[in-house]
Structure formats: C-alpha cells, structure tokens
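Re: the multi-chain job from yesterday

Posting the exact lines I submitted so nobody has to dig through the queue logs.
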Amino acid sequence: MIRVLTRNISRAPGAVWIDAYEANGGYDALKKAVSMAPDDVIKIVKDSRLRGRGGAGFPTGLKWSSVLPLEGSARPRYIACNFDEMEPGTFKDRFLVDGDPHQLVEGMIIAGWSCRADMGYIFIRDEYKITRQILKRAIAEAENKGLLGENILDSGWSYRIFVHASAGRYMAGEETGLINALEGRPAMPRSKPPYPGTSGLWGKPTVVNNVETLSCIPHIVQHGAEWFASLGKAKDAGTKIYGISGNVSRPGCWELPMGSTLHELLDLAGGMRDGFKFRAALPGGASTMFMDALQLDIPLDYDALKDAALMLGTGTAIIVDDRACPVGLLANLAMFYARESCGWCTPCREGLPWVEKLLRAIDDGDGRAGDIELLLDLIKNIGPNTYCALAAGASFPIESGIKMFKSDFEEHIAQGKCPYR
Amino acid sequence: MPTVIIDGIEYEVEQGRNMLEAVLDNGLDLPYFCWHPAMGSVGACRLCAVRLYRDESDTQGKIAMACMTPANDGTRISIQDPEATEFRRCVVEWLMTNHPHDCPVCDEGGHCHLQDMTTMCGQTYRRFRFKKRTYTNQYLGPFLTHEMNRCIQCYRCVRFYRDLAGGRDFNVFGSRNRIYFGRQRDGVLESEFSGNLAEVCPTGVFTDKTSARHYTRKWDLRTAPSVCIHCGLGCNTIPGSRYNKMRRIEGRFNGDVNGYFLCDRGRYGYEFSYDTIRSENAIDDAQNALKEAKGVVGIGSPRASLESNYALQKLVGVEHFSAGLSEFEQEAAEQYLSVFKSGTAQMLSLAEVELADVVVVLGIDPTGEAPMLDFAIRQAMRKAPMEVARKLNIPDWDANAVINALNGAKGKLYIAAPWSIKLQEIATEAINVTPANVAVFARDISRGAVDGLASGISTELAKAKKPLVVTGISAGADTILAASELAGSIPGCGLFVTAPEANTLGVAMLGGQSIRQAVDTIESGQADTLIVLENDLARRMSSPAFASLVENVKNMIVLDCIETQTTRAATTILPVATFFNSDGAFVNNESRAQRYYAVDPPVEDIPAAWSRIRDLGDFTWAGYEDILRELAADRPEFAGTLEAAPFADWRSTANRKIARETHRSSGRTSKDANRTMREPQPPDDAQTPLAFSMEGDQNPPASSAVIPRFWWPGWNSNAASNKYQKEVGAELHGGNPGVRLLTASGSEPEADRDKASVSYPQPAGESKEIWLIPRPYIFGSEELSRRGIAIGELIPPPEAAIHPQSAQKLGLTDGGTAELDFDGQTISLPIRVEESVAVGVIVVPMGFPETYGVTSPTVARVK
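And the result, structure tokens for all chains:
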C-alpha cells in the first residue's frame, strides 16, 4: 500500500512531533522550496495537477497563481487553511493533522513562500479542540527551529501562522464564508469575482486551501510534479484519503491512489455489517449525488465521476444500507442544509426549509399526491441559482435520492406511513 | 457607450452600469428587491434573474442575476426567457411562504414594492402548506413601527443603516430562515436617518409610526411637490394629506439635492401643522392700525416664502424692512453672499458634497443643523477610496465587494468645532476649539502652517482630487471668510456653507436692515408700528431686548401660523396658512430657488401670508407669481425663480393640470357625506398648475418641479421613481428641480475684518467669563418640528455642557446648576461636565425655550 500523506502516521510515541518529522525527511521540502523562486514552486504545483481536496477540485497551482503578479499587489497577503471539516460524513483532515501536524505546517509555509504571503491562518473547526492543541504545539516547534517567524531559513522572508477556531457554521467552510468568519463577521459567502486571490481577507490577496491539499505540497516539492502525477490510477494526480462510514464492518479512512474505486474501499472496510445490504452511497460527503451498486467500479476521481454525472466531493463515502429509510435520510440531510443556510439569498434560505418540511411530511406519513413533483420542481429551481454552492450541494443528494428511491417515496405517500418503521 | 442586447433588441447604456440598471435605464421592467439605486448590488434576493448568453452563437445561456452582471458592450440577456421567468416567480413564491398575507391591515399596502413585484412575477397560487415563521417585534422609538413577520430579508435596511448612514445600533442577527433585522434590544434608533428604513424597506417591516396614527393609503393621499422647511438644505419632499390633515412626508428624489433620502426631522417634522393658530380674522384692525401708524417697520422671516417676504418689503419699503435674521446671522449671511458672488471658491450642491475625498468641517454641527449634510459627508467618506476597488476591477455598484476591498478605508475628514460633533466618529482628526479659533485654525491651514494638524490638513487638501471645505452661517461671518480663503487657496476646492433655515439665503438676498436696526427704529420713536412675518423675535434677540421692544411698540401686527412668544405679545394677530397650505419659493443654502406647492387649499379661509400683506397694502397681485414676476423685474438676481418651477398657466403635454389626488382616490363622491349629501365642487387651485382633486394628468409631468408623487402602472411604491429618471438613480427627466440664483462675478469678497470681529466678543481675562454657545440639535432646536408629537419625544433635556478644566476653573460641578448672565438676561441650566466640548466654552441647546436669547456665540458670566 502506498503511503504518502500518511507515511508518518503511527502509534509510536512522539511520532507527531518535530524530531520524528525531521528524522523522516520533514522540512527538507521547505528547504528546497526556499532555495527556489516562488514562481518555480507554483509551476511545480501546477505541473503536478494537484486539485483541491476540499471537494470542488479546483487546480491548486492555478489558485496560487491568482495572487500573481506579486509586484504592485496589496499587502499583507494571506494563506488560509480550511480546516472547518463540517461536511457530513467527512473525517479525513483531522486524521491527517492529528497524526502528522507538521506535514500541514510545512505545506502552509511552502504555500506562504510561493505566494510571498505574510501570514497564514488555520481555520479549524471548534470541536477539534485536541487537534488545535497539537497544531499550536507544532507551530511553536517550527518557530523554535526558525522554520516559521522572522527571516525563515535566512531567506529574508517572514511568515507567521495562527490557529483560529471557527464559531461553528457549515458555511464557515465555504471559501469566502471562511474569509468572512476569519474577519469576525457572520459566515456568509462573498460574490465572485472578485476572487480571494484579488480581494480576500481584509480585502487583500488570499489563498484558501484545504488541509489535505496543503498536506500534499511538501511531497510534490520534494519528489517533483511527475512523481506526484504518476501516483494517480486514472486521470487525476496523487493519492487521496478516502473514507467510509455507515453500516460497514470497519468504518475509517485509507490512503489510496487517486482513482481507486468504492469497491476497493468497501473491501478495505470489510464489507457490509452482518444483516445489512449495500443499497447506495454518497461517494464524497453529503453534498454529492447518490451512486448505486452498479456504479461501484467507477474510479473515484474528479473526471471519471463527473463523466458519470457524479461527484468526488471530499472522497469520504456514506453508505446507505437496505434497512435505512431513504426518505428519512433525505429529510435529515435537508434539515442539515436548511439549518446551515446562512440566510443571505432567497432560494436557499426559504426554499430549503420547504424541501425539508415536505420530506419530513412524507416521512411522517403526511405526504400528498404531487409532493414528489413539487420537490423536484423546487430542487430544480433552488439548486443552480443561489449565491454560493451550499444549495447546489443540498440539491445533489436530494434530487438524485428522490429519483433513485422514487418507489420508497411513492410507498410512503400511498401507505400514509413510513414502511421502515 | 456600450450596446447591450435585451431579448434581441439593442440598447445603449452608460459606461459602468450593471444589467439591472441597463434594463431599468431603458424603461423596461425587471423585478428586484435587494438592489437599490443608491446602494448598489449585493445579489441576495435573486429576483432579477435573467438568461445570460456568452455571445451571439450561444443558444443555451445560463441563469444569472442582472444586478451582478456588468453591462459590457455586447452583453446579451433575455428577460422573457421562460426558465428565468419561472425562477423569478419561484423567488416570490419562496418569500411568500413566510410573508403574512396581511396586506389589508398593513401600512405598506398600496405602495408596497413586494406587492408590485409579486404581481409582476405572476405569483398567484400558494403551494406551501406548512406553518409560517413568526418573530417578536421591537420598540424602535416614535418614528417607526417594526413588524418582522413581513420581512423578506433583502438586507436593504441594515445596509442603509450601517453602510450608508453609519448607524451602529441596528444590525442583522441570526442565520438561515431565522435572520432578524433589529436592535440588540428594544430602544429608540440612534440614527438621524432612521426614517429612511421605511423608504428602503420593500415591504411593511418598517413603516411610518406617525402616519399610523391617522393612516391613509397612498392612493387616498393628496400629495404635492414640496420642499422641506426644517433646515436650509432644501431637501425635496412629498407631503401627503387627506381630509385637509397632513398624514406623512416622503422624500422626493432630487439628484442635485437630497437624492432618495431625508433626515428624521424632515420626515417627521410635519406634525407641527396640527398645532396652528385659528384666531379671529383681524384684518380690519390691522388695516386701521397701519392707517394711523407713525412709521411702520416690517420684519421678514427665513421660514416664510420669498413672495411673502418681498410683499412685506414692498409694503413697508426697503429702508424699513428687516430680513428677520439675528445680528449674527445677518452679518454671516451677507459675508456668505459676498463670498459666493466673488467666486473665490466653487460652491457645491449637496449632491456634489458626496463626491469629495478630503473634507474640512469648520465650526458647524451638520448633524444637528443640516442633518442631510452629515449624510452626504458620510457618503463622501465612504466613496472616497473607491479607486482601491476600481484597481481590482470591482465595479462601483458591487457594493459588498467594494466594502471588502476597501476594508474600512475612508476619505479624510477633519473637523474643528466647539464641541465633538457626531461626524467625529468617522473623522481622521478633530479638534474642539472656541468659535473664534475655528477661523484662526482655517487661516493656519490656508496660510501654510509649518507643522501640526493644520499643516497636515493643508498637505491632504493639496493632494486631494476633490477637496471640500464645509462651514455655515451659524459659524459666523469671520469663519465663512476664513473658510472661503482656505477653499480659494486650493485649486479645485469646493465650498459648502449651510444656512440655518429654509429661506435664510432668500431673505438675506432680499436684504434690508438687521433686526437690531429695525428695533432701534421703533425704540427711537421713528416708527410705532411693527409688522412681523412668521418670525418669533424672542428666538432672535435677548429677552430684555424683546421685552423692551414689546414695551415700546404701539402696534405689533404678527402674521404667523403657529403660536409663539411674538404672537402672544402681538396687538393684532393675522393667522396665515402653513406652508402645507400655501405656495411659494425658498432659496436654499447654495442659492437654489425651489418652489413648494400647497398640498391642501387654505383651511378655514386662512390665506397665505403674501395675500394678507396684499390686503394690508394697495396691491393688485392676483397670485404669488405676480409677486415673483415683480421681484424678478425689480431685482435681476431673482430672475431664476421664474424658471424654478412652472406657473399657474402651465399644462401637461395632454394639456391638463397635474392631479394632486390619484385616479384611484376613493370616496371621491362620498368622503364628505357625513357633512353633506351633495358632492361638493372640488376646491379650485387658480394659483398653480396643479389641481387639488383627482381631475388632471396622472402621468409623469414634463417638468420635474411638479411631480406630485411617484407612480407608474405596476409600480405603486416609490420605486416608480425609476420611471421618472433619465438613468435610474441619476437625473430626473426634465432636469432636477430648482434653479441656482447666484453666480460668481469674480469680485473680491468684502472682507471687513473689523466688522467680522464684532461677531465674536472675546471673553475678558476675568475668570468668571466664558463663551456661551448655542448648539443645534436635530430634535428640539428647529422651531417648527419641535412642536411635533413624535419629535417632541426625542428632544433632549436642556443642559449646559462644559469641559472639566473650565468647570473646575469656574467652580461648576456635574449635575449642579449653571447660572449664566449675558446681554442683560440670566438663564440657568443643569450642568453636564464632559470632555467633548472645547475648553473655555459652555454649550447649551439652541432654540429651546430655556435658552431663548442665546442666538449666537456670546460671552457669559457665570454667577
């Protein structure tokens, strides 16, 4: 099994701290990067075809170059690490940082060097209290070794990293919602353009990257773009932390080459628990479309899934078994999205609660003829036309779920009750 | 000019517009909520969805928000696209899931943007079968009713209140579908512009609480174009009445003056009209008194029309006419006129103030004296660093992106005033100095002080793209002179000078004696009869002087609409119509002559003041326009008043008068049925091109000065104003109303330093002497509005504010009583010791009954 991002993760005492990290080649990549021109580092990242691991899959090198040209651009410039990890069913970033915090810190520093940033913020989900302490200690360790702070590695460049705990909204994990939250404002999204690379945190050039994305950076710099690109099984580059939850024998996450299949993942998880049958899966957190048993061999990467009208999302799958009521499941999902709507734009704020109420009514046996059509009509209009991607994220599982589980819906409405209860 | 394609048709648009503006600019309809012409786009409501095509070959397109789409050359959209149309309907349907269907009992009904947009989007059938959301409402003070259940979360209120008006006690709370707009807890809204929440709210969350006491639907209001009487800026208003009673005031868009907004004094001051004089008609007594008089002196008024003042001047003769200003004001106004005519500085309009990037405020308190100037300066400071956003290719209308890019950057604002004015909260630097030292400070700046704040300001002004110096008549003649020198010393620098009352500049231009001279004429026995026009002399002279005048005058004929100390001292009172019941012209602080038209005909045969004066003399004027014509012939500088607005013989393009009542006015034949079963003849209005009834033209008039209301088929709310504008948010069709009378002649300003210094008696070294300064408050200092019910609730308690150092020197303590001797009178007020006033001054509220006689900065002795 290939271990890149997880290579330092072990139960050995002290494995998470800087001595162990450096003993295993840690911060060599940073030293290499600092000897290179920032533009060249960006070029390597571009060439590696690394795509954002937060869910949207935006090419990281391209995002970094949005702050270019550096001459004449405003300062201070910022790197923000998105460690909000509030996507339902997703638990890969905490796994990475709990086991190897310096990998993220090094990735943040290289990102900072490449964009000539002045400050970095790690925006971390508030519930990750222990992880926060681990990160703070890792940052202090790096500072003590002159890898962070003033005049890093005698390069003349100074950069600091701060850990900021989220106030706790799903929207704080949206790129621009995160920026607003960091500024101390409600976590509402911003319109794009202007993109954060132009006008981000406090109106200054900002790059926002996911934890897993930044964790890839040291390896790319160390081993080169080609090496990283070759790690992927299919079109996409690198490895991916895939995860699985639901009624499987061993839920968890694994590092696999990009483009592995859900089939492989299910095998690693030991298959379904006794008495449960696989029915469907949300392949990448809650904001993706359902896939069924016939789609288990589709490579889990951005393009292959897109070709199948699916999405990779965060790559942590939620498995739906045959004993879970899909209507209730969708009602719960809708409740989450309606609750986590920031309240800025109308379709999301007013439309999703209606969807939730309809789904709940059907689940409670109060469904009426025409409700399915009404739901699909609402979703069709809400999904693509909102200010940010939250409502779209809500519409993917709900729309595909209604279509996939239509018979369950019809049964609920016809019987006037939930057949699973 | 870019050409855009809307539903296959090409339209030209101005550079830098967005597609919603492009659509509205070209007279097309596209529904919207969160966009506002004065506030830009934020993309929150999603109502202005259209289909946007990449280019000619693109047949798919995508749904986009017009308000967030730049109107570039070749931008191609479809409004009629079925999917976009259906989506817009959906947006309204979603909003309607929670909006109460309480239109019949909602004060917004009939001029509700939400009603209009719901109809425009074709949302007619309710598919939502669940319960609606409910909120708890708040008490927000006497001006606004709060009904959050009606909220459609367009965010206009919070954006207006915080981003534009600079308020901090109102915000948006919560998230998801529990978003709440209000205060942290119940309480009176602190902003002086809170009433505009009712203006910007597209539905009935914020409605006019004063109007609710005597509610009338918009379609039942009789409305007329009017001008605010409560300060000298001349904001344009639309007062509405029914049954000859004033019901409410709304802003009347004027792109050169107030734009869309009004201050709370202007919006709620109308309630003074409930408290007017209705005494016996004593015209015979007055005529007899004049016949027997041994010399007559006339005192005009800055709150009376140009026509009435001129009529009085004609009646008594120029040599016996006083403009009715205090000594201090008269002198300052004359100085201002001479500065204006000299052309040393460029005199700006209120709208132009919003374009300044470095502003120096000298010796006045815009918030208390001319609140919309405070608002304009806030807009200037907000927009000044716009270049930062433009460099990032962010269009000016992308409101939140601009805010983010600017990151709190503001224009430079410097203030020198005797007390900490509210604008200090956004000032770069501010100093509190005595009134006389304001002028000294201004001269330090213009003469290039070598160091310190003055030098810094001088540098900033020189660097500025649009520098501006702001002062006012209330700052005194010497400060105006110093301000004009300062503005004149910087290339391209603007000057803005406030005038305390609606027609201060008008009467100052008419000229005449000061009140002091007029009173001297009486007291010396050269005249025994005094005619006072709509002026409370007790507010403009010391109490002993007023008492002496009353003692010495044989006949005092007072024309007024309200009861004042002067009417109480009159030998003959001639009640006159309020300005809501009469027509006339005011000249605002930048010499803009503007016409106001009566909303209602005179009540109980109480005529306009000019007509009383006509009856006192031997005049043949048929109407106020005859007086104006005579004035213009007599005094060429007033010629512009003839162009400011149309006269009685003007007719619309359909050759009709303009109807003050709407075509939907209900009870047309029955509203007087409790009194008479006969349908009375609608009152005739021979004086103006407007009809008091619904008979007449309802279309937007070709002359913008006679717009009685903003209404357009399908647009019942004030948003209909977009149909009256050349480009939405800019100039009205037919030009913005009003004509500027003064132009620069290039003459040297009269600079009579000796005379100017008279305004500022210096406190002697004696330890018990101190500057006594009247401070204008938005609520309480202005004579008429303070009589209003709602405004009356917000008049602060009269107190004397003094700096701790001065308090210690004079032995005054916080909470104690200050007894102040000046000009032979004594006032006593509770003391408030605070650092927000200059050392060496004691500041008292202007125009409060407790402070009558404190007309200008003066020297007082502390007892």
